[in-house]
């Protein structure tokens, strides 16, 4: 079910440890794994008798197996988490420790209020934020320039559609996508819905006002995705391609664009055949295009990711989590280009133009919409993933897609 990448003290020492803290996370780049391993080693050195185990699961396996793990004797003590309905479901099932009291010693003050809000349920705090992410288009400018596409001039959805057409005319694959996993294609529908509905539109839909998720902005999101799909912009076999494979394909220069989170910078390079990926001088990260008449054109779409602690975890798990999310450790992550940190002041250590752009985008955004497959809960999120793939294949209509999301929300 998982691959342990670091049992840092070795089997003999581990057996003698007074306390073992198991940490489980979605699969990440080796650079980030090394970062966590160093933090764990330093913590163990300063806390004799404590053993930190770091386990990783691929994205889809993590989402599907975590609920089962949380009900078993093999549950982790700390697990990677998104906020929203997905976390709320685990809290209501009694799997998650209340961190409200632990946050009162100055720990909470490290984070922006919006970040704490993402992990607050019914007035109590059930998680600690790790980083913020933005979904946008990674662009290979060596390919776009070859086709005569000016990436810097892409501002609207129509601009992007025009760029896709130009790339196809130049016999260059416009976009690579890992649709087999569902959520990569959902980034299109989710981003378009965010642009069109805006914060108030999502708030109204969740409250059941009007037509809910069958309201015009959500139908229009499907229409926009349908527009793109009709241009046949994706690589052959896109429905059988995983996210990890698509990430590597972009790194190998097999397409001009990849709609993905900012976190894909290092993984895309490492998953490429060369291990180097698209050279930095040919790499750009651009914001998702605006949509005419949209109510959320100043918003961002992405993640506000963090950690939760299981209900019966040892107190040392909370102690380690506080150390993991220290200002120094967040600065180090920023310096290495691993992610855009959430602890106040750590963003100043960002060194890549991509990281700095994301930090600026998030800071200037009117609001940040978190991933729909997490924000709306597991069952509704699965429906959003499914309708996104169906729209991309032309096997459902925008109206039917929106109605399916609304029905899933009503019967969640």
UniProtKB/TrEMBL annotation:
It comes from the Bacteria. Gene3D superfamilies: Periplasmic binding protein-like II. InterPro entries: Bact_solute-bd_prot1, SBP. Its main location: periplasm. It holds the Pfam family SBP_bac_1. It is found in: Periplasm. SUPFAM superfamilies: Periplasmic binding protein-like II. Belongs to the bacterial solute-binding protein 1 family. This is Extracellular solute-binding protein. It comes from Modicisalibacter zincidurans.
